[in-house]
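SEVERITY: medium
COMPONENT: batch folding queue
REPORTER: lab tech (J.R.)

DESCRIPTION
The queue accepted two submissions in a row. Attaching both inputs and their returned structure tokens so the on-call engineer can compare them side by side.

ATTACHMENT 1
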Amino acid sequence: MSPPAIAVLILTSLAREIPRGNIYDRNGVLLATSDWKQLESRRAQYEALGVSLDAVCSPIESRDYPFGELTAHFLGDWRTGENFHATNASLVEHDSNTRLQGYQNYDELAPLVRYRHQPGNSDIERLLQIRAEEKKSQVGRRPACETLGERSQDGRHVGEK
């Protein structure tokens, strides 16, 4: 294998190890996650909503959608990518991909591979600082899905004239 092909394999492998972000609705209900522990910790909340986690989710799945087909039309399905590139589709998993995966392209991951054996490297520290600042800026913001169906004081959908 050529060195560039090996580099792509390493970056792809690293990208798969970065956990994908969660998606919540406006009430803080977890709609999509790659972390089974997140679902388990909310089991009682889902049961109160009539959702049996054992029936719709699995700890071996790479991504779980507790509401399944009820939310697929606006979340999409990261596992299959179905309808991600349809011109008439707007799916949160696709449209918010950069925010959910934590990076825009593999170029941003290259310093992590290049300097992985050099703790405290300035490139890695800079990347981590950028990520920390992005996370801080998100504190108190509404979840990605929250604006769906949001209404203004006069009862119209936000953005509606």
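ATTACHMENT 2
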Amino acid sequence: MATTDRRHHHLSMLVIRPVPERGQADAAWWPQSRMLCDELPKLVAMWPHDIGQIERVLFSPPDWDDRPQVVEAAGRWIRSSSLPHDDTRLMTVMLSDHSRRHIDVIPPGASRDFARHTFNDVTGIYRALKTKVAASTDPVDWGDERGYA
């Protein structure tokens, strides 16, 4: 009987600081896979409209198996390109108000403890946002509304 590695069965999760802090990640995101063309629409769907609409994404090529120039998300096209430096685990989103938010990308295969630690670095007193799209029928239970148990 085959066993399943539970680390790969989780909800795509996103936590955001409502007020950016210089030198700190503005958000942390745990995508389900390394396919940006599949994951970017989920990120756009989770992103709160009151912060601003995602217009463009700069990503670190080593984090992704694909490198699309545009991705369809929420009925529109989001431009994407690589960061000038391979800043692994970093993504920058440019918003409709011309601001930028820096996202700490948690590798899809990361352990729950690693993800929880990364989310805790961002959350503190901040709000957490979770997608309702499950990767499997046996997702990780994150517990409370802050996004961690």
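NOTES FROM REPORTER
The first strand starts at residue 11 and ends at 16.
No errors were logged for either attachment.
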